[in-house]
User: Fold this.
Amino acid sequence: MGANPLLGVFFHWLGGLASGSFYVPFRKVRVWAWETYWLVGGFFSWIIVPWLLASVMTRDLSAVLRSAPHSSLFWTYAFGVLWGLGGLTFGLTMRYLGMSLGMAVALGYTAAFGTLMPPIFSGQFFSEVLGTTSGLVILGGVAVCMLGIVFAGAAGMSKEKEMSDEQKKSAIKEFNLKRGLLVATFSGVMSACFAYGLAAGDPIKKLTLNHGTSTLWQGLPVLVVLLLGGFTTNFIWCVILNFRNRTGHQYFSAEVRSAHVEKSSEPILENVLDAPSEEMAEAAKMNANAQPLRAPMFSNYFFSALAGTTWYMQFFFYTMGETQMGRYKFSSWTLHMASIMIFSTLWGIALKEWRGAGTRTKVLVALSLFVLIASTVIVGYGNYLGARG
Assistant:
């Protein structure tokens, strides 16, 4: 099957929609601490669904993984572990820089490093990117994506300026620019390791194609290995939190124990790494005066599983989109990041997170959406030129 960049952009938009939507089911989880529902969802997003879909959609999955080069398996897994560290430190970035500035800086690093480093390491950057018209168009699209992320960050900062001093202190209690930039750099670079893991899995893709798998599904066996690495990092951290916060019983018992409930109205989250975003901290809030008596176990497992499955679908569609981008498949990472920002912003609008914002803020939000959508069109057009050439 030949490259079809237009179809590839569409798949990446579907992936962005899944990524921007996955946290919505988590809002339905009641009583459980963050580490509990995050790990339950993680079993589905990093273990169960990747193995299930790869087993169904590809040929001889076990044989492919057994015969894959050890170096490819190791680096794919290792980059997954590092990517997991990036996700966990994302919350620390929010704590020190605030939601808007922190997300803009971290995602900016992730978009830049995840897109540009693979072709630089492969030697493709100077010959096929800087040396061709299609490559330069794609590079321009990457720059436009970065500009869109800047506008999104500016919109968030504009909203923060409209807050009262009391609201600002509540939103960013531990603002520290120097420390925040260091953590954001670490988080952004580590999060970009997902793109490196996909590149490291190229030999696995070749093997599964040789076993008769369709081109469209060649990336699914790579996700099995890569997400296992991400699961490792998150599993270790969540279990540590289960022990520390005494929340391990939540997996098995609907009974609410007071040991993990704060006496004040502050969130349970005892450490800034407990949650990767402001939404997670908000969803995990529980106070002693208004706690439910029992956890809805079936409902919690169902919505956690739904959230985890939705999360996985972003990379299910990502690998499909990557197969359609031709020789410039590295540009898939920019399309992925832009799509996530687009649909996360649209969800924010739908959930009225920008309600009450001033005109300047709303203009910046609209501008960021326009620029991010434009970046996906430009990158897609660059790939179209490359496919024609």
Q: What stands out?
A: The chain has one domain: 5-388. The CA atoms of residues 346 and 352 lie 10 Å apart. The first helix runs from residue 5 to 21.
